[in-house]
């Protein structure tokens, strides 16, 4: 494999019908860059929540709600950067 090619390893676990865990490791064969991501997805009757964090210490969350039997879709997104050095 050449140094510019990437490798991806993913894992998905579904412990119940409503809950799913996932993780992914991405890296280049040169060993200089890699990224890890892990999270979950939880389903409800009219919506779902997705949350994950990556190796850059950024956490993401998304809440999606279906209204009027799927005619309307509402989303709330958030991101927190725990790796930021800003005061």
Describe the structure.
The chain is mostly beta strands and 87 residues long. It has strands spanning 6-13, 19-28, 34-44, 47-54, 58-67, 72-81. The protein has a six-stranded antiparallel β-sheet, with no helix packed on it. A hairpin with a 3-residue loop joins strand 4 and strand 5 (58-67). The protein starts with 5 loop residues before the first strand and ends in a 6-residue tail after the last strand. The mean pLDDT is 89.
Structural topology:
Layout: E1 6-13, E2 19-28, E3 34-44, E4 47-54, E5 58-67, E6 72-81
Antiparallel strand pairs: 1-2, 2-3, 3-4, 4-5, 5-6
Sum up the structure in keywords:
87 residues; 66% strand
- The largest sheet has its strands arranged as 1-2-3-4-5-6
Radius of gyration: 17 Å
What's the multimeric state? single chain
Count the strands?
6
Uncertain segments: none
């Amino acid at each position: 494999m050449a140094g510019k090619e990437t490798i991806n390893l993913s894992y998905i676990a579904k412990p119940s019908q409503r809950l799913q865990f996932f993780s992914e490791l991405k890296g280049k064969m040169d060993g200089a860059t890699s990224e890890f991501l892990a999270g979950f997805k939880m389903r409800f009757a009219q919506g779902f929540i997705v949350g994950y964090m990556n190796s850059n210490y950024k956490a993401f969350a998304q809440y999606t709600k279906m209204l009027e039997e799927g005619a309307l879709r509402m989303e709330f997104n958030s991101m927190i950067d725990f790796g930021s050095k800003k005061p």
